[in-house]
């Protein structure tokens, strides 16, 4: 049975959802603004007989994830931007070795040490593969506590289904906010379908090896084509997005996560005035909801990209929409959280074409 | 001699796959693979073992060992092994690592796994050089030893001192057993085998972390014949890395 409604902080929602999704292993290293998540799991996993290790670094954490995943567990790690940078080699190995895992990035301002304010500046890193090699991983971008719970569940499902790591991205604002949540049915790890590829001792079967080294060029070539086939299947089947008031809209804001929450407020205010504006919200940043966005763009509407970074999401929008619609861009770096009124101003400016806020993107 | 009196004196351990390996002639890796496999056979643990291969010359160890294995990124074997052991606590989890892997890029993972007292066995191949990448300086390269990146030999002022990671690990309260061995003679090989066995026994008893360091020849990058390489270990390398038990809590009785 789904849980009762509970009022919870975003970071705790992710932890609770992970445990209910059958995750029994967490490895991480402290970094603000996501510490509430490992803190929650340090006691919660103990209650269910799971494993919690505060590792010596993000590098160690992601490699513990590799081990626990190879041994068959549903496993998670979390961090924030600089720590996610350190995990990239391990994420690349997870992809190469086809190991499922969930990685949470509560993004903060960068580059370098940056600050701990909400940011979306790791969009490229997340969607373009921040590590080495030709790989992809699903990137889920929740925009509130209920979705944090549901997408955490989904992340574990996708990871196991495709034997691939999955990343969930949020920020400090999302980790701190309190909202009511109903959790999906809890899963007992014992009831999960058995995995026929894990390492658990070769009793009664030939030994297994999990690796990503393929010295023979034709073999690595085939391995990459095999991975690509999987990524194509994910891209075809796992796209998720939300249309909000886009019906009849002349200006559609494209935004995700925290930026989309702010944009939703602005859209609501403008709609109350009777203005034809809407919001298109990618929920999977990869696979990017190309088809849905392209269909909308065919109606000749104006697309207004809004992101808490300086031109990352907009690149996917340009790649998708091309010259079909006019594309506008407004980005905020470094952490100041814009109000709905500011986004409202941006939308009005796009609508009138006065160029006051944001800029037209030449394609 | 009658057929019945014939004794089988050589056979392939079941824990090794019946295949040829890529190691150079005279390389220590082949010898250590063999004794490790023999120990697993003798202890009946093959089907309960999960091994972690390093990045280094032994990266393909999973092609030779006949038990479950995963390849870790360079240096991270003990973090990977930690993840495995916490999920499969009743298995024998072992890492097989070179000196660059264990004592340079993976130093943090090594020290912290040992210090957490992970119930893991580590076989540490110290050949004082980077084999796989073609003979560059290792953290364990001794003073004066030539490598492709220490053209005049290791210079202590420029390159720092060779690291004795086994002694460093002995300081951690939860390392149970650490011994340094060599494989330069049948006697030494038997000793190394006993040490590996002891390490596995410690793990299966749940006592904590243990490590067996093995001084191992890399004739190729030392630019020596196999025989010269063995002699060089005994005459030179052992002066920096003396053989023997470095720590053994099982004897003092506080192994728990
Ligand atoms: C992150 C990373 N850095 C560097 C390398 C290149 N590399 C592969 S093996 C190795 C050193 C191997 O030396 P050692 O661990 O002593 O093992 P040996 O080959 O001597 O057995 C290096 C530097 C790598 N694979 N990954
Ligand atoms: S290079 Fe050295 S360590 Fe590597 S296989 Fe050859 S002899 Fe062995």
Keywords for this structure?
heterodimer, A: 363 residues, alpha/beta, Rossmann fold, 8-stranded mixed β-sheet, 6-stranded mixed β-sheet, 13 helices, 40% helix, globular, B: 256 residues, 7-stranded mixed β-sheet, two-stranded antiparallel sheet, 11 helices, binds thiamine diphosphate, binds iron/sulfur cluster
What's the level 1 CATH class of the largest domain in chain A?
Alpha Beta
For the record, give the distance between the C-alpha atoms at the N and C termini of chain B, rounded to a whole number.
52 Å
Task: Indicate the percent of residues in helices of chain B.
Answer: 25-40%
Structural class estimated from helices and strands of chain B: alpha/beta
H/E series of chain B: HEHEHEHHEEEHHEHEHHEH
How many β-strands of chain A, per DSSP? 17
- What Rg of chain A do the Cα atoms give? 21 Å
SS field, number of helical segments of chain A: 13
CATH topology of chain B: Rossmann fold
What's the CATH class label of chain B? Alpha Beta
Number of domains in the coordinates of chain B?
Answer: 1
Rg of Cα set of chain B: 18 Å
The helix/strand class of chain A is: alpha/beta
Bound molecules: thiamine diphosphate, iron/sulfur cluster
The gist of it:
Chain A has helices at 10-20, 36-47, 58-70, 81-86, 88-96, 123-127, 145-162, 172-176, 217-237, 257-272, 290-297, 313-321, 340-352, and strands at residues 6-9, 25-28, 51-54, 75-79, 101-109, 115-118, 139-140, 165-171, 178-181, 209-210, 241-244, 251-254, 277-282, 284-286, 302-307, 326-331, 359-361.
Written overview of the protein:
The complex is a heterodimer of chains A (363) and B (256). Chain A has helices at 10-20, 36-47, 58-70, 81-86, 88-96, 123-127, 145-162, 172-176, 217-237, 257-272, 290-297, 313-321, 340-352; strands at 6-9, 25-28, 51-54, 75-79, 101-109, 115-118, 139-140, 165-171, 178-181, 209-210, 241-244, 251-254, 277-282, 284-286, 302-307, 326-331, 359-361. Chain A has 363 residues and is an alpha/beta fold. In chain A, the strands form 3 sheets. In chain A, strands 2, 3, 4, 5, 6, 7, 8 and 14 form an 8-stranded mixed beta sheet that branches. Chain A has a 6-stranded mixed beta sheet with strand order 11-13-12-15-16-17, sandwiched between helices. In chain A, a hairpin with a 5-residue loop joins strand 5 and strand 6. Chain A is globular. The relative contact order of chain A is 0.13. The mean pLDDT of chain A is 97. Chain B has helices at 28-43, 61-64, 77-87, 99-105, 107-116, 156-159, 165-170, 186-204, 219-222, 226-240, 249-252, and strands spanning 49-53, 68-71, 92-98, 121-126, 129-130, 136-137, 175-182, 209-215, 244-248. The mean pLDDT of chain B is 95. Chain B has a single domain (23-248), classed as Thiamin diphosphate (ThDP)-binding fold, Pyr/PP domains (Rossmann fold). In chain B, helix 1 crosses helix 8 and helix 4 crosses helix 5 (107-116). The A-B interface holds A 25, 27, 51, 53, 55-57, 59-61, 63-73, 75, 89-90, 93, 97, 199-204, 207-213 and B 46-50, 52-53, 59-60, 62-63, 65-73, 76, 79-88, 91, 108-109, 111-112, 116. Strand 10 (209-210) of chain A pairs parallel with strand 2 (68-71) of chain B. The complex binds thiamine diphosphate and iron/sulfur cluster (SF4). Iron/sulfur cluster binds at residues 23-24, 27, 29, 57, 127, 131, 218-221 of chain B. Residues 23-24, 27, 29, 57, 127, 131, 218-221 of chain B line the site of iron/sulfur cluster.
